[in-house]
Design a protein that fits this description.
The protein is mainly alpha-helical and 362 residues long. The chain is built from 16 helices and two strands.
Length: 362
Amino acid sequence: MASQAASLQAESVLPIKVSSPILFSLYGVIPVCLFLFLLDITVLEGKLVGAFLPVTPGEWAFWAIVFNFPHIVSSLMTLIDKEYWSFYKTKLIKAFVGFSAFVLTITYLVPALASPLINTVVQALFFTFFATYTMHHVLSQQFGIGMMMMRVTQTRRYELWRVTATIATTCLYFLVFARDPLAKIVISGIAAADILKVASLVMVIVSTGIAATLISQSKRQLGTLYCLANVLMLWVTWGFMMMDYTVFVILIPRFIHDLTAFIIYSTHDRNRNLTDKPNLLYRYMQWLPLSPLILCPLLAIAIANGIEQSTQWVDSQLSVAGLPPFLQISVQIIFIASFMHYYIESFVWKRESIHRHHVGFT
């Protein structure tokens, strides 16, 4: 506990807090994307989406390097800390064993042992679970910050807001990443894609109504604007999906979520490691004249890309050796790390967690 006391004392002397206005400014990506959309349909005659924009931003090299997996690694980096490990280890070990067994069963055992039909059903259910968990995680961060900024307690109504928005965005996730399988499914003469479009719209409308009741309780203008921006994000991403600008459907929430996470992790790591550096990574890297505010995202990007490149190399060797695709390891590692990240984020930033001792918000 001595390291925690030292860090708290240092924080009280030189506190650095997460800037709420900066977090709100990240939603500026929405008008930028709207401007590009309007420019494309009015001036460029659809050439932007037709010739230059990919289906998802993951096809851009810069995006693949900086976004998605690096922010997951960044959150896991905070746990390379003796005191944190002692505090969380029971939860972390159980979660790691459980998620690893779950992922490896789905990706290794089922394809190897089950019939093609059963395997297809299981993989579809797994994809549904992963998509839902991913969107729940993304919205939990953004909606939770909004409630904190509004200074409104998270009640059952908040949970309902989050659930309805999660359903809406999960439908959009399917429409982006499962468009080919959806094209083959027809229910009572109606295409599955059309059903999801209607379902997502209904959930966006319901979510907006619930959000309006929560926003009416706001005690801070910035919090009101932040939650309104979250509602706008739902409507804009739904609209882009209907207009087939799928790259913006993924780019907007991913950009906001990942950069918000980096800002929070960097601030936490700076305050936590201000003096004695209990985190082993920052202790070993203290010869660099860089604050954890800068080192946090740089290390996360380097480590994440190192893991991805090395596992992809191993997979390429396995492929040359003639082993089937389901024995490749890169995707499994990303799945396990993602599930661990989603689970960890569900409790480490709550008020009773020791993570919160080292991060505050303006």
